[in-house]
Specification:
mainly alpha, 2 strands
Length: 137
């Protein structure tokens, strides 16, 4: 039962990530000190950086389908590990000039991106419930 709740949390996080408002993804102090910059409004190739969250939501849906049918705890743990590594890889490599930790924290605290907050909460719930499922006897 815990596994299904964890997978459901992953699906919910993917939904929140997919419907995230790109106008509320921002960073602080990029061009000038004490200035808030919305990433989607930057001209050039950089404004495609917000697409990483759409890609993460699609990857989350794909992995949640696979994780729903895995009953072996070891294989489930391996798949969760690969999913988290792929997600960190996407955040590190697709956000070209931005630090993903700064983008997430600034978007939540300064741009009031509550969908990103919900995405982060459900990601943490997924990870916590998955660890409980894996290490529970």
């Amino acid at each position: 039962m815990i596994r299904y709740i964890a997978v459901f949390c992953l699906v919910l996080s993917a939904i929140f990530c997919f419907f995230m408002d790109f106008d509320k993804i921002c960073t602080y102090g990029l061009f000038a000190k004490n200035e808030l910059t919305v990433i989607f409004q930057i001209d050039g190739t950089i404004n495609e950086d917000v697409i990483v969250f759409t890609v993460i939501s699609i990857v989350s849906i794909i992995f949640s389908i696979f994780l729903a049918f895995i009953s072996n705890k070891v294989f489930y743990g391996i798949m969760v590990f690969f999913f988290l590594m792929l997600e960190l890889f996407l955040l590190n490599k697709m956000l070209t000039i931005f630090d993903y930790q700064e983008v997430i924290s600034t978007s939540i605290m300064m741009c009031d991106n509550y969908l990103m907050l919900l995405w982060l909460i459900f990601q943490m719930l997924f990870l916590t419930l998955s660890l409980v499922y894996i290490f529970r006897k």
